[in-house]
Specification:
81% of the residues lie in helices and 0% in strands. The protein is mainly α. The chain has one domain. The N terminus is likely disordered.
Length: 235
């Protein structure tokens, strides 16, 4: 009985931290796409990115009294992660070849990117570098390390934690896509995001390093953004 009572505060902290971090990307998406808040949406986007970067570290170090770590890989996993990234890239390429406009039309993508100037080739290229080498690391730090770890504290079983964290990872993507593509395309794209989230979370749980998980994420992103480049700029 005492062991159960002692575990409740830890679970409560995990739940509070999970909620505070997980809602940030959805708030950003809704502000930008649902409310169309213009300059406010830009400030909210920046604020939520800073929130997602700063809060997990603060929560872990100051609230939960965790120890500092650079998530240095200790258990290998590089070959597994690279292989899964390549398989995902091939699957993305095949899906685009077979489904094409059912997933996303060029004009829909242009509508998403044009308001922020990303139909200009050099700007799109810089943004792609940001997404692959910075944003994807941030996503692994937030969704794999922090959110997956918090979910693990709340539920029993590795696969429950993996599936729940992948679902959280998918939510804001699905909401954002709903404003630009039809339901079928959104379902297909969201399914791909969810599968990716499952794979990335599994890698993290297996090897306990965001860097190992990031390798697969980055390789998959290369395929996604190569398709985006072909749709907007062409080769």
């Amino acid at each position: 009985m005492e062991a159960i009572e002692e575990s409740n505060p830890q679970k409560n902290l995990a739940l509070y931290g999970l909620i505070l971090v997980a809602i940030a990307p959805t708030i950003s998406v809704l502000t930008g796409f649902a409310l169309k808040a213009g300059i406010l949406a830009i400030f909210v986007f920046i604020f939520t990115k800073l929130w997602m970067f700063g809060l997990p570290a603060f929560w872990y170090l100051k609230v939960e009294n965790g120890e500092k770590s650079l998530s240095i890989p200790k258990n290998g996993g590089w070959i597994t992660s690279t292989s899964l990234g390549v398989v995902m890239s091939l699957a993305i390429a095949v899906a685009y070849f077979l489904l094409g406009d059912l997933m996303l039309r060029s004009e829909d993508l242009a509508e998403i990117l044009e308001p922020v100037g990303l139909t200009v080739p050099w700007k799109l290229f810089v943004a792609i570098l940001f997404w692959i080498f910075i944003n994807s690391v941030l996503e692994e730090y937030v969704f794999r390390w922090f959110i997956t770890s918090k979910v693990e504290q709340l539920v029993d079983g590795k696969w429950k934690a993996i599936l729940i964290s992948a679902g959280i990872f998918t939510i804001h993507h699905t909401i954002a896509l709903a404003f630009f593509i039809d339901p079928l395309g959104n379902f297909l794209a969201s399914s791909g995001v969810f599968i990716g989230g499952v794979i990335f979370s599994w890698i993290y749980v297996q090897y306990r390093s965001i860097w190992v998980a990031w390798v697969a994420h980055a390789i998959a992103d290369v395929a996604i953004f190569a398709i985006a480049w072909e749709m907007i700029v062409g080769f």
